[in-house]
H-type lectin domain-containing protein
Amino acid sequence: MFIIAAILCVRVFGQLGYDGYTEWQSGIDRTINRQNKFVEPVYPLQMFTRVQFPRQFSRRPQVLLMHEEIEWNKNRNINYQTFVSDVTVKGFYINYLINGPAIIPVLRVRWVAFVDSEAEVQYVNYQFEDLIRLRQGFGTRFQDFMVQYYLKYPTPRVVAFIVGAEIEVYDSLTTTIQIQLGKPTGSATPVRFLTRDRCHINTLRIAYFISSDYSTLMGTLGSSDNHFNQFLDNENRMKLRVQRFEREVPSTFIFESHQNVLAQGITGFDVHSRAGNFYIKVGGEYVDKKSSTYHCAYGTRGDTVLQYMEVSYILHPPALPPYQMFVEENVTENQEEAKIEEQQLLNESLIP
């Protein structure tokens, strides 16, 4: 079985900015979590789950999905998709489609919903006929595309998340998807998909987040930032082998940092297709009130042979007006319990 996990601890929160009207909320869906119908599935497997926003939006928001955790069989073809439907001011549906043959017993999804005139979500489906170089051949292959968006973003930034794929790995030693984003322009961003060995990518579903608001911190972390790859060493199989990253953030994030909307998900990976159980764990820490650094760590354990891993993140500041902040101080008992649970998950995800 393969497992890719991006475990992120964050409190669900919405925001109303000073300089422009924005609302942000975030949460996690754990619909697929080792139930019998996912462990012993009958394909095609389709289902959906209703997500209700903690607070109603003023108008219909955009919804971004990203995967924090996914598990599947080793040396098996994988075919799955997640997508959003029926978005209203009160909630939306997350739809799951799994076609096998790989069993996917775990799939945890992070969602971010927002009303923000300087941000945009695009879901792009790359079909079989589009991926001519990636769906056949062997060795290192790549294919280039362009992601287009409205001209309202003079200096945009873009991050990408994998939210669906059909991959053939029967004769491949690796399962590989790598995304490289080029320099954005006012209307488009070049994107390159790479794979290697005999890994054949038949379809891809990518979620792009585009923003020109520099109060939103976003980027990609991974092996490209690390000269030495720690994940090939699997001698220590009892403990997590962790890679840590740090990012300096603007001072606007320091005030009441626990209120920040923090989200991160899987952007790319390269794992040995015929190794043992595949396991990756990613954790993000709140920006401490007395710190100017955002901390992130991910790692693996057991027999996993991971040669490449990248995650993308989005961090939004707590731009709340005084009256809204006063209301939010009255936290319910359930919110306090959720906060304690999230902190426990964070402590487990990072090695001291």
In short: The radius of gyration is 20 Å. DSSP finds three helices and 19 strands in the chain. The chain has a mean pLDDT of 77.
